[in-house]
Amino acid sequence: MTTEKMEAYSLEVGDQITIQGEVYRIVEIEDGDSLDYRFILVDEEGYRRHVEAESTKKFALVLDIQEAIG
Q1: In terms of CB atoms within 10 Å, which end of the chain has fewer, N or C?
Q2: Count of CB atoms within 10 A of residue 58's CB?
Q3: Contact (Cβ atoms closer than 8 angstroms) between residue 63 and residue 18
Q4: How do residues 6-45 score in pLDDT, each as one tens digit?
């Protein structure tokens, strides 16, 4: 899997990121409660979770299409 570190402010709905070795697709972006952004994520099995981040927090954006979540 090929990834590139990207700041939270540059991520978009549909992007895929890795968190602790797991791949998630961003399905929604909201204003965070205590931080700048709340990302609503779904994994390859359809489980949802969220993560909040400051705009400058870096995430590993998945670039390799073969690892894509449909």
Answers
A1: C
A2: 12
A3: no
A4: 999 999 999 999 999 899 999 999 988 778 999 999 999 9
52's tokens: 């909040």
Helix (H) or strand (E) holding 40: strand 37-42
Q: Spell 3-29 as b/e; 16+ CB within 10 A means b.
A: beebebeebeeebbbeeeeebbbbeee
Note the pTM of the prediction, 2 decimals: 0.86
Helix, strand, or coil (residue 8): helix
Question: Residue 47 corresponds to which tokens in the numbers above?
Answer: 């489980």
